[in-house]
Amino acid sequence: MPYIIISTQIRLESGPTFVGDEWSEPKLMEYLGATKMKALGNNFTEWRSEDCARVVLNKLEKKGYKVVSMTGVGQTCIWTLNKPEESTS
Questions:
Q1: In a domain, 89, yes or no
Q2: Is 60 exposed, middle or buried (0-12, 13-18, 19+ CB in 10 A)?
Q3: Is 20 within 8 Å of 42 (Cβ atoms)?
Q4: CA quadruple 59, 65, 66, 69: dihedral sign
Q5: Residues paired with residue 20 on neighbouring β-strands, in sequence order
Q6: Distance of CA 81 to CAs 10, 38, 41, 59, 89, Å?
Q7: CA–CA separation, 52 vs 23, rounded Å?
Q8: pTM
Q9: Considering the domain boundaries, does residue 69 fall inside one?
Q10: Does some domain include residue 45?
């Protein structure tokens, strides 16, 4: 089952929202309006959308994703979403 984790800083209500890691599906990232970036000091890249988390969550819902959990860590909000596999029967 496909999972995606998105996160944003609480104090940045209008964006940006981090929407994937370097192995995320490029077509989905394009749909979310995300660009791949590497922050200074990090040894990994991540996808970032300028949209606020609410807009990203709405877009993901239209693609069939559902929130399965949400938590806060310090000043960061993190959502885990899942898209059920389509049955072929």
A1: no
A2: buried
A3: no
A4: negative
A5: 47
A6: 19, 23, 28, 12, 24
A7: 22
A8: 0.86
A9: yes
A10: yes
pLDDT digits (tens, 9 = 90+) for 43-78: 899 999 999 999 999 999 999 999 999 999 999 999
Query: DSSP string spanning 41-56?
Result: T-SS-EEEESS-HHHH
The alpha carbon of residue 23 and the mean position of all alpha carbons in its chain are separated, in whole angstroms, by: 12
Residue with tokens 């059920």: 84
Q: Which residue has the tokens 């089952």?
A: 1
Would 88 be classed as within a structural domain?
A: no
Kind plus residue range of the DSSP H or E element containing 88: none
CATH number at residue 28: 3.30.1410.10
Residue 16, classed as helix, strand or coil, is: coil
Amino acid of residue 66 = K
For residue 51, the enclosing domain spans 3-82
Q: What are the pLDDT digits (tens) for 1-53?
A: 589 999 998 875 677 999 988 899 999 999 999 999 998 888 899 999 999 99
